[in-house]
Design brief:
The complex is a heterodimer. By secondary structure, chain A is an all-alpha fold. Chain A has seven helices and no strands. The longest helix of chain B has 44 residues. The chains are: A mainly alpha, B mainly alpha.
Chain lengths: 172, 200
């Protein structure tokens, strides 16, 4: 139990600090690590991801769910704190310092230069998640349709999740 | 990484920084405000909710101040919305403000998600729920896909950025490299390139 909690803290604290570009950027790496620890199967990871995205709150509640699965309420708490605290402290420090730095070439370069990395990591997460679906091609086509719908019209994300979920149930 | 669409009227709002700014809130009011945001935002797009509540409704932060913070929160490690709550909390009430804003946005949804996990452990393996989750997860991946594509459209200046992003996708998505290796090999290159461009 304690061993599990320590593992949860270590894995998620590390993920917290390398999740450049937000939670979605680190999904691929998270899936790799939590399945390597045998905490969840790839399919369960995908299920948890779906639950976290359709529940209220930050999508990173996924971490809470994994922690809870591994070690109950304590696991949920430890995993969440490990995921939110290190990056949170960093943001606090940067908020108090970064804003006071004068606009410089390096400051601009860091902001602009991290963008391709953030986009690449986010899209790599898309690839990883699709690969663990039962029918990767069907899932890929579905997600592409959703992305296009979201980009071209003002669709409510929650409505979209519900509609596609219902469609899959009907299609069986 | 969620995009915030600014309507023209809102853009002009940003031009008038001396709009009546409200007094900074108390710690409890701040926590409650973020709890409201956390509980009413589904499937991403939380940043837009935060802007609506803090900038438009409460007038605690100015539009341009918020957008600068949002840009910073997107590149920093950590979930963008949680980062944003910490940024806003820090701006309004310092360290204590950061803590109460973060607790507000994280804790109430945490209860819900564990209840959902509990339900999953009972009915999660039934064929009906498996089909439902297969559909919802495919659509949820679509949200993430849209997030990445919109962000690229907003911030990329040309094909070199796409090349760098594709390299990261190949390393992490296909070759399953540890993410740190990808960051270490593409990050410095990308920042140097941006530095070079900024000088022109």
């Amino acid at each position: 139990m304690l061993r599990n909690l320590a593992d949860l803290a270590r894995v998620f604290a590390t993920l917290s600090l390398i999740s450049i570009g937000g939670g979605s950027a680190v999904i691929a790496e998270m899936q790799r690590q939590v399945t390597a620890h045998n905490w969840v199967t790839p399919r369960e990871f995908l299920d948890f991801y779906a639950i976290a995205r359709s529940a209220p709150g930050p999508g990173m509640q996924l971490v809470t769910l994994i922690g809870w699965r591994v070690a109950g309420w304590m696991g949920a708490l430890v995993a969440s704190v490990a995921m939110f605290l290190p990056s949170g402290l960093l943001v606090y420090l940067v908020t108090t310092v970064w804003g006071r730095l004068p606009e410089s070439r390096w400051k601009q370069a860091i902001t602009k230069g991290l963008a391709p990395l953030a986009v690449g990591l986010t899209l790599a997460s898309v690839v990883t998640l699709l690969r663990s679906a039962d029918h990767p091609l069907v899932a890929a086509a579905t997600s592409l349709v959703c992305a296009v719908a979201l980009m071209s019209a003002r669709v409510s994300p929650l409505l979209l999740l519900a509609l596609i979920g219902a469609a899959y149930v009907v299609a069986g | 990484m969620q995009g915030i669409d600014l309507q023209p009227s809102e853009r002009s709002l940003a031009m008038t920084p001396d709009q009546a700014r409200a007094e900074p809130p108390g710690l409890l009011a701040l926590a409650l405000s973020f709890a409201r945001i956390g509980m009413s935002s589904f499937g991403g797009g939380n940043a837009a909710w935060i802007r609506r509540e803090l900038v438009e409704r409460r007038r605690w932060l100015a539009q341009d101040e918020f957008l600068t913070g949002y840009a910073m929160c997107q590149v920093m490690p950590g979930a963008t919305t949680v980062n944003l709550s910490i940024f806003c909390g820090t701006k309004l009430r310092g360290a204590a403000g950061a803590l109460s804003a973060c607790a507000g946005i994280v804790l109430p949804p945490m209860l819900i998600i564990v209840l959902a996990g509990l339900a999953y452990s009972y009915v999660g393996k039934s064929p009906l729920v498996q089909h439902l989750l297969a559909g919802v997860s495919a659509a949820a991946v679509g949200l993430t896909l849209q997030m990445g594509l919109s962000s690229a459209r907003r911030s990329f200046g040309g094909w070199i950025e796409w090349l760098l992003a594709l390299a990261v996708i190949a390393m992490v998505g296909w070759l399953r490299w540890p993410i740190l290796d990808a960051i270490a090999s593409v990050g410095p290159l990308s920042i140097l390139l941006a530095y070079h461009r900024a000088g022109r």
